[in-house]
Structure formats: structure tokens, C-alpha cells
């Protein structure tokens, strides 16, 4: 199969709308709807739901962008630092998305006087949904590719040699599979113990390490794909946390008493802007950088390829 998907959904007077950016918008809507549904269980008001979603969206966008620049594409941006502001050229990292979401949730918990652990037990459910649809965006935009393969469901890319594993689809399916497990876990262990959040960290990172064995990383660290280092660290931390929380007799934190407070007009406006903002992000890697790297890969493959046999009559 040939990977020839159009990364654009449509062209608008304000510019192109991309599939990759649209999945972030969809993920933010998922965050909002989950806490809208769970606000009574968490003692949250409508204003609280808007505030958390706004903070989460900002944290995800900043975290994903900063992490990508500092960890994956530092060589590219070191020579052109002002290009870091060009969000429309692409460049987001999933581990940064996780970190940004964590910081945003911690900030909201501090502002509201709520339990951070309880909020994390909740937020990982829509967070897993965001990561699942995010990988669908990765597949369409072609920024995350697998290693060379001969399996019949492999995809051929115009700027790469040979067919490749559709590793972004593997990752998306893995994240969607985690979702019902987390929903079940919330019913089994009340938010506030940390079991659900620990289970997410362990399953997400541990299964991602297995999936990423089929990934062709454009960057490496310590002899393995850069993301694999963080996958191992996260999986180890998640396993330790899961064992500790399951053995801990700690009772769930009390749910704050809600105060009737409707969302303000500026919260509604801010959330709408943040949902629309990602639509202009085209790719997970900066387009110019990934094009350069893949061109180098193609050239290296041609250089190292054996000479064709010569026949003499």
C-alpha cells in the first residue's frame, strides 16, 4: 500500500486545516466532555471544568512544542531559534504532551485546593483518548513511520526506501485498548488512591516500548530511539507506583464541596480559541527538518547499496 494521504482537511481564508492538528482539537473536546460528565463526582462547577480544560490545552501545546524542540529537534532549532515560534511549520512530541498535561493538572489542583492524585486518576482517561486519536493524526501526516517490513499491510512512503510498518496505527490501537481498562479501574479503585494514574503510566509506556520496536526513530540516544529511553523510564516508574498504590492502605482524598458558579464568557471564548488553535499544525516533526533527514536517509541508502551485477556476453 502507498501512503499518499492528503494532510489537509480543507483550505480556509485563514489558512489550511490539517488532520494532525485536528486530533488535538478533538482531544481537548474529549477532556472537556469527560469532566463535564464527571463534575459532580469530583465536586466541580461548570467554571472549574472550563478552567481545567483551558489549562490542560495550554499545557499540552506548550509541553509538546518545547519537548520536541529541546529533545528531538535541537540541532535544527539551534541554528534557527526564532523558528521555534513558527507553530504552523509543525513540531510536537507526545512525551512533552504528557508532561505538559501533568503540569497543568497540578496547577489546577493547587488553584482549587483539590487532590492532585485524584485529578490525575481522572484525567488519564480522556488523556488516553487524546493520545489515541493523536496517533491517527500521525499516521495521516506521515511523521511517525515504522521500520522496513515485508508484511502485506506495510506502507510505502515516497521519500523512504521500502515498505514500512504502520506503527502509528499500532500505537493508536494500543491507546484505544487502554481506555476501557482505565474506565474499569475508576469503578474498581476510587480516584484519589493513584491506582488508575499508575496503571495508565505503566500500560502506556510499557506497551509503547513494545510497539516502538517497530518504529524508525529519526533521533537516537544511548544507542536506542530517543523515545524508547523515556518509555523505559516511564514504564519502570509506573510499575513501582502501581505496586505501591495497590499495597497502600491510604484512603481516597475527600471531594471538595462545589460552589455554584457558571463559566464566564471569557472562559468560553478562551476554550473555543484553544480548540481551534491546533488546526493549523501540520506535522509532528518540523516539515523542513524531516524532509532534510529523510533526504539524507535516501542518499545514505543509495551510497551503501551494492553495485548491480554486471554480465559479460
Description:
This protein is mostly helical and 313 residues long. It has one domain. Helices cover 60% and strands 5% of the residues. It is built from 10 helices and 6 strands. It has a two-stranded antiparallel ribbon with strand order 1-2. A two-stranded antiparallel ribbon has the order 3-4. Helix 5 runs parallel beside helix 7. The longest helix is centred in the N-terminal third of the chain and has 27 residues. The protein is globular. It starts with 7 loop residues before the first strand and ends in a 9-residue tail after the last helix.
Please name the defining characteristics of this protein.
313 residues, mainly alpha, two-stranded antiparallel sheet, 6 strands, globular, disordered C terminus, transmembrane, lipoprotein, transmembrane helix, Lgt, Phosphatidylglycerol--prolipoprotein diacylglyceryl transferase
List the helices and strands and how they pair.
Blueprint: E1 8-12, E2 15-18, H1 19-38, H2 46-72, H3 74-78, H4 94-112, H5 116-141, E3 155-156, E4 163-164, H6 167-188, H7 195-211, E5 220-221, E6 224-225, H8 226-247, H9 265-276, H10 287-304
Antiparallel strand pairs: 1-2, 3-4, 5-6
Helix pairs in contact: 1-2, 1-5, 2-4, 2-9, 4-5, 5-6, 5-7, 6-7, 7-8
Instruction: Supply the number of helical segments.
Output: 10
**Overall 3D geometry?**
globular
| Strand order, largest beta sheet | 1-2
Order of helices and strands: EEHHHHHEEHHEEHHH
Radius of gyration: 21 Å
The strand count comes to 6
Q: What percentage of residues falls in helices of 4 or more residues?
A: 55-70%
**Into how many domains do the coordinates divide?**
1
What gap, in angstroms, lies between the N and C termini?
39 Å
What is the subunit arrangement here?
A: single chain
Unreliably modeled segments: 308-313
Instruction: Give the biggest beta sheet.
Output: 2 strands, antiparallel
Output the structural class: mainly alpha
In terms of DSSP E residues, the strand content is 5-15%
Nearest-integer average pLDDT: 87
Amino acid at each position: 500500500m502507498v501512503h499518499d494521504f492528503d494532510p489537509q482537511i480543507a483550505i480556509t481564508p485563514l489558512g489550511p486545516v490539517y488532520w494532525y492538528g485536528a486530533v488535538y482539537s478533538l482531544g481537548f473536546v474529549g477532556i472537556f466532555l469527560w469532566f463535564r460528565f464527571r463534575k459532580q463526582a469530583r465536586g466541580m462547577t461548570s467554571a472549574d471544568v472550563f478552567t481545567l480544560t483551558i489549562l490542560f490545552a495550554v499545557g499540552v501545546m506548550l509541553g509538546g512544542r518545547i519537548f520536541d524542540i529541546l529533545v528531538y529537534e535541537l540541532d535544527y532549532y539551534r541554528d534557527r531559534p526564532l523558528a521555534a515560534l513558527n507553530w504552523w511549520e509543525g513540531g510536537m512530541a507526545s512525551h512533552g504532551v504528557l508532561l505538559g498535561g501533568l503540569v497543568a493538572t497540578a496547577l489546577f489542583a493547587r488553584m482549587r485546593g483539590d487532590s492532585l492524585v485524584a485529578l490525575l486518576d481522572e484525567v488519564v482517561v480522556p488523556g488516553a483518548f487524546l493520545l489515541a486519536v493523536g496517533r491517527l493524526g500521525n499516521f495521516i501526516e506521515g511523521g511517525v513511520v515504522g521500520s522496513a517490513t515485508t508484511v502485506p499491510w506495510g506502507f510505502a512512503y515516497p521519500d523512504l526506501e521500502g515498505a514500512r510498518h504502520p506503527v502509528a496505527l499500532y500505537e493508536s490501537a494500543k491507546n484505544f485498548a487502554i481506555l476501557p481498562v482505565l474506565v474499569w479501574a475508576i469503578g474498581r479503585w476510587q480516584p484519589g488512591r493513584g491506582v488508575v494514574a499508575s496503571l495508565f503510566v505503566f500500560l502506556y509506556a510499557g506497551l509503547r516500548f513494545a510497539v516502538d520496536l517497530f518504529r524508525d526513530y529519526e533521533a537516537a540516544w544511548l544507542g536506542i530511539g530517543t523515545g524508547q529511553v523515556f518509555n523505559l523510564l516511564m514504564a519502570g516508574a509506573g510499575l513501582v507506583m502501581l505496586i505501591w498504590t495497590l499495597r497502600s492502605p491510604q484512603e481516597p482524598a475527600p471531594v471538595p464541596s462545589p460552589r455554584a458558579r457558571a463559566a464566564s464568557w471569557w472562559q468560553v471564548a478562551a476554550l473555543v480559541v484553544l480548540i481551534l488553535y491546533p488546526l493549523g499544525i501540520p506535522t509532528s516533526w518540523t516539515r523542513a527538518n524531516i524532509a532534510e533527514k529523510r533526504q539524507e536517509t535516501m542518499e545514505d541508502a543509495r551510497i551503501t547499496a551494492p553495485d548491480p551485477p554486471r554480465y559479460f556476453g
